[in-house]
Amino acid sequence: MLLAIDVGNTNTVFGIYREKELIGSFRLSTTAERTSDEIGMQIHLYYTFLGLQTSDTDAVIIASVVPPVMYTLINAIRKYVGVRPFIVGKDIDTGLTNCYDNPKEVGIDRLVNAVSAVEKYGCPLIIIDIGTATTFDVIDENGAYRGGAIFPGIKVAMEALFQKASKLPRVDIVRPEKAIGTNTVMSMQSGAVRGYAGAIQGIVREMMDEIGGKCNVVATGGMGRMMAEYCDTITDVDANLTLTGLRMIYEANREKFSAVKPIGKLIASAEEEITEQM
Predict the structure, then answer these.
(1) What is the secondary structure of the chain as a DSSP string?
(2) I need a surface site. Which of 32, 45, 159, 180 has the fewest CB within 10 A?
(3) Which residues have CB under 8 Å from 81's CB, separation 6+?
């Protein structure tokens, strides 16, 4: 089995694969305060919930945009799963041609998304990841990563509005039936959802013009499905785009993973050697 982990700014998503089948997935809030034992026990509990054993995990692959949490996450994997995790961008490459001025500046999750989306939806392609930040990524007709755009996620923007405007309340992010709000809450909701839908569609159309015409537009991220309801430029929604990309990168690099013994086996071998020497 493969354990794929997507470490995002708000949540860390864990996906367990048996070959190409996603058996199950769960989320933890991303925080540097969480200990490796807390992470490890949550992983162990989820495996148990699915009737699985962590010892059956053959490989672990991680994509992370949050460096401060990596030390405890890696320790949790080594201690509770018994496998040395591979980090995309450090231990293994995505295999994409990256046309960014400085390729290292691109968030690794954006490249992993591209690997998955190119395989599933073809080229050219625009990927919109609507989460803590809203990112747009453009893949050209040759499958190369061209670049994109970044702007604050809708939840971040609404929280900033609440904090900076003393008379405005926190509100649920839903789209009122009418654009003209008749109270403060409805006005804020209409502005937030319709404003973001308009921004998404405007950016997508300009990107299409720059790459020479229409293409598939795939939305992912925590708010992807909701915003797709209000954006006719979005053609597909794929909540598991990053996990799928991690699985595909693992499959393309199986020989590297198979060359590394599980930590549990290494420990067992060392114990056998000590016993023989005694």
Answers:
(1) -EEEEEE-SSEEEEEEEETTEEEEEEEEE--TTS-HHHHHHHHHHHHHHTT--GGG--EEEEEES-GGGHHHHHHHHHHHT-SPPEEBTTTB-----B-SSSGGGS-HHHHHHHHHHHHHH-SSEEEEEESSEEEEEEE-TTS-EEEEEEEE-HHHHHHHHHHH-TTPPP------SSSS-SSHHHHHHHHHHHHHHHHHHHHHHHHHHHHTS--EEEEESTTHHHHHTT-TT--EE-TTHHHHHHHHHHHHTHHHHHTS--HHHHHHHHHHHHHHH-
(2) 180
(3) 3, 40, 43, 54, 57, 60
Give tens-digit pLDDT for 51-88.
999 999 999 999 999 999 999 999 999 999 999 999 99
| Catalytic residue, candidates 6, 109, 129, 137 | 109
The pTM (predicted TM-score) of the whole model is 0.86
